[in-house]
Amino acid sequence: MDHETLRTGGKILTDIAEHKSPQTRAGYVVSKHVTESAEKLIKKLRGFGRKRVGETGSRGANTRNKKTKRA
Predict the structure, then answer these.
(1) pLDDT digits over 15-56, tens only?
(2) Could you tell me which of 23, 26, 41, 68 has the fewest CB atoms within 10 Å of its CB?
(3) Which of 2, 9, 62 lies closest to 33, judged by CA?
């Protein structure tokens, strides 16, 4: 199981157990935490596949532009 899924489940159970006000009914708590988890997942997926700054592979951009002396 995914680490984020376990964390979300724990937060849901904790909120339900600790709070007694009408605003923290099970449906509200589940909805709140699932929405937060979905937003985190979407952010993670949007960043997936993008190269990090500085990642250019074995030949960097600077090495392509350098001229070498030939004898």
Answers:
(1) 888 876 666 678 888 899 999 999 988 998 888 776 666 655
(2) 68
(3) 9
